[in-house]
């Protein structure tokens, strides 16, 4: 029931993810942030088994930071995506991670990029992508309304269209979503779309 | 010298009828294979069989004054109640508590291990470990054992420099920071009472009563929960056990027996 989707616009990439942490029929938490800031200009939106998701994305984050320490320059988005895919592939036949990832980033030279990396280490550079049951609704919505070089307002509007569609059509739809954006000014949280508020919102 | 060739003898002939070619020649060493069609699945089944269901109710929540932790005390093996007096709230150190759900041995051992690691951290760094750090230590250990059949569903509750902290950690490797959690087979029932009655600014007595009530209602509906509802409070000076009430007695306290009208009454039949 985890929904993760994203798209590339004019000079930016945006990703959205649901924020429910679920265990069979129980919702343990409805403000769990599943989009990790990988470094200043990269975002990883991950969905999958809870332990794998956090452990694997943190592992990638620390290795990306280590590269920057060692070499003085940050990895490009393409390099980070290929590194992530490589780690998934190496573990696949031994101790596989059940994580699906959308990696969004901005490089000065090449602009914004979105990479689709699934749990069996498939890697695609895409303009728009989605994972989970929500993908059945968001992919066609994005296919219909997407055009290249969308503005931030148009892209957020499309993200909201997808969220509305997921909320109305998915049988156990997650109540809350988080939207994060990455552009030349860096990776940051853009907005939350909440229908259920925790009395004290504490994020991981 | 007679060589021992018993290892080369096959346990049964490969083909039913003897064949001239095979006679006198051993058919090759054989070994026993599991009696199953699904080679890969049977291993997973074996692990699942050992894994006990998390028959318990534990809960914890953060409020203005600190953290309230409560649990039942029943241990069940399928339909048999093996104990009504299990300590499900484990004292990791004087300012941190862990709750037990899942395998009792797994929870007790790994909480004790966590206590050791926390103490080592204190000695090495001359300061107490944070709740964030302690829960991450436990989560990483459990993650490294994933798929091997550990069954742990625990909450780490404590008070550190940043104030009250509460984390949910389980044997699948999941770790969640939150303000309200309930774990175990009775947890949906406990959530029903806890979510409705929760306010951030409660007094310690109100919070303890809410915790006790939530455990009671869960034990009422869930067969695998029962025994004694223990309530602990974690404040700036560490944890303190507040109460331990038998849920049977709580039932009659909350719902005392009322005299009611008799609908049908058996009467003696006069004569034969």
From TrEMBL, chain A:
Protein family: Belongs to the peptidase T1B family.
GO cellular component: cytoplasm; nucleus; proteasome core complex
Alphabetical list of PANTHER family matching this protein: PROTEASOME SUBUNIT ALPHA/BETA (PTHR11599)
Organism of this sequence: Carya illinoinensis (Pecan)
UniProt key word Ribonucleoprotein: no
GO biological process terms held by the UniProt record: proteasomal protein catabolic process
Function text: Non-catalytic component of the proteasome, a multicatalytic proteinase complex which is characterized by its ability to cleave peptides with Arg, Phe, Tyr, Leu, and Glu adjacent to the leaving group at neutral or slightly basic pH. The proteasome has an ATP-dependent proteolytic activity. Component of the proteasome, a multicatalytic proteinase complex which is characterized by its ability to cleave peptides with Arg, Phe, Tyr, Leu, and Glu adjacent to the leaving group at neutral or slightly basic pH. The proteasome has an ATP-dependent proteolytic activity.
Name recorded for this polypeptide: Proteasome subunit beta
Assembly: Component of the 20S core complex of the 26S proteasome. The 26S proteasome is composed of a core protease (CP), known as the 20S proteasome, capped at one or both ends by the 19S regulatory particle (RP/PA700). The 20S proteasome core is composed of 28 subunits that are arranged in four stacked rings, resulting in a barrel-shaped structure. The two end rings are each formed by seven alpha subunits, and the two central rings are each formed by seven beta subunits. The catalytic chamber with the active sites is on the inside of the barrel.
Subcellular localization(s) per the UniProt record: Cytoplasm; Nucleus
From TrEMBL, chain B:
UniProt-listed PANTHER family: METALLOPROTEASE TLDD, PROTEASOME SUBUNIT BETA
Name of the protein: Proteasome subunit beta
Keywords: Cytoplasm, Hydrolase, Nucleus, Protease, Proteasome, Threonine protease, Zymogen
Location relative to the cell: Cytoplasm; Nucleus
Gene3D superfamilies: Glutamine Phosphoribosylpyrophosphate, subunit 1, domain 1
GO biological process: proteolysis involved in protein catabolic process
UniProt family annotation: Belongs to the peptidase T1B family.
Main location: cytoplasm
Record's GO cellular component terms: cytoplasm; nucleus; proteasome core complex
List of catalytic residues: 56
GO molecular function terms noted in the UniProt entry: threonine-type endopeptidase activity
KW Nucleus (keyword) present: yes
Signal peptide positions on this chain: none
Reaction catalysis annotation: Cleavage of peptide bonds with very broad specificity
Primary role: The proteasome is a multicatalytic proteinase complex which is characterized by its ability to cleave peptides with Arg, Phe, Tyr, Leu, and Glu adjacent to the leaving group at neutral or slightly basic pH. The proteasome has an ATP-dependent proteolytic activity.
Subunit structure: Component of the 20S core complex of the 26S proteasome. The 26S proteasome is composed of a core protease (CP), known as the 20S proteasome, capped at one or both ends by the 19S regulatory particle (RP/PA700). The 20S proteasome core is composed of 28 subunits that are arranged in four stacked rings, resulting in a barrel-shaped structure. The two end rings are each formed by seven alpha subunits, and the two central rings are each formed by seven beta subunits. The catalytic chamber with the active sites is on the inside of the barrel.
């Amino acid at each position: 029931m985890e929904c993760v989707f994203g798209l590339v616009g004019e000079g930016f990439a945006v990703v959205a993810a649901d924020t429910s942490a679920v265990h069979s029929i129980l919702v343990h938490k409805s403000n769990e942030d599943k989009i990790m800031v990988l470094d200043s200009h990269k975002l990883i939106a991950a969905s999958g088994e809870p332990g794998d998701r956090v452990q694997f994305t943190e592992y990638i984050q620390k290795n990306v930071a280590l590269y920057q320490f060692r070499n003085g320059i940050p990895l490009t988005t393409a390099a980070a995506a290929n590194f992530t895919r490589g780690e998934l592939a190496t573990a696949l036949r031994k101790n596989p991670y059940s994580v699906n990832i959308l990696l969004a980033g901005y490089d000065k030279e090449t602009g914004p990029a979105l990479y689709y990396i699934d749990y069996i280490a498939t890697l695609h550079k895409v303009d728009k992508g989605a994972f989970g049951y929500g993908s059945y609704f968001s992919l066609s919505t994005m296919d219909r309304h997407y055009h290249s070089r969308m503005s931030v307002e148009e892209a957020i509007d499309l993200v909201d269209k997808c969220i509305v569609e997921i909320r109305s059509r998915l049988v156990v739809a997650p109540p809350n979503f988080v939207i994060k954006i990455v552009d030349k000014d860096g990776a940051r949280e853009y907005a939350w779309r909440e229908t259920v508020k925790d009395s004290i919102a504490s994020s991981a | 010298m007679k060589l021992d060739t018993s290892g080369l003898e096959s346990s049964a002939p490969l083909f039913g009828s003897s064949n001239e070619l095979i006679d006198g020649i051993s058919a090759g060493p054989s070994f026993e294979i599991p009696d199953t069609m699904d080679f890969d699945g049977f291993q997973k089944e074996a692990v699942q069989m050992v894994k006990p269901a998390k028959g318990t109710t534990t809960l914890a929540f953060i409020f203005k004054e600190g953290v309230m932790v409560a649990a039942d005390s029943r241990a069940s093996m399928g339909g048999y109640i093996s104990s009504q007096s299990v300590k499900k709230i484990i004292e990791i150190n004087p300012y941190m508590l862990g709750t037990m759900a899942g395998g009792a041995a797994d929870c007790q051992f790994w909480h004790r291990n966590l206590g050791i690691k926390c103490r080592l951290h204190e000695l090495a760094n001359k300061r107490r470990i944070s709740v964030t750090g302690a829960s991450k230590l436990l989560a990483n250990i459990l993650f490294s054992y994933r798929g091997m059949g550990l069954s742990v569903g625990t909450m780490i509750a404590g008070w550190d420099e940043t104030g009250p902290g509460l984390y949910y950690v389980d044997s699948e490797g999941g770790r969640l920071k939150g303000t309200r959690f309930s774990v175990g087979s009775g947890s949906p029932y406990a959530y029903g009472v806890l979510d409705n009655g929760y306010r951030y600014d409660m007094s310690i007595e109100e919070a303890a009563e809410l915790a006790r009530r939530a455990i009671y209602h869960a034990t009422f509906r869930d067969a695998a929960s029962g025994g004694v509802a223990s309530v602990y409070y974690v404040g700036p000076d560490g944890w303190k056990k507040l109460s331990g009430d038998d849920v049977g007695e709580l039932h009659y306290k909350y719902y005392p027996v009322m005299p009611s009208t008799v609908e049908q009454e058996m009467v003696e039949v006069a004569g034969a």
